[in-house]
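REQUEST ID: PR-0412
SUBMITTED BY: lab tech R.K.
PRIORITY: routine
TASK: structure prediction, single protein chain
INPUT:
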Amino acid sequence: MECRLGCAACCIVISISSSIPGMPNGKPAGVRCIQLSDQNTCKLFGSSERPAVCSSLQPSVDMCGLSNIEAFHILSELEQATTPASIK
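STATUS: complete
OUTPUT:
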């Protein structure tokens, strides 16, 4: 599966604990990444500044579903399931 251009679910829904240019403390879940363009494309794609966690994400039907809306729902459920109770 290839990433759906303009989806950006993984750039909004999930938390990222590593530093991102412009977001030195990472990104909380549900917060739009500062490196996401108005067209919902990554400004750091292909750059060495892109966090390893972002580069390692590989689109799949299990993670992205069959639509952008489905991707938001699936990733939201995964984020909730993997967030420690002390943070919720």
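NOTES: Residues 9-82 form one domain.
REVIEWED BY: pending
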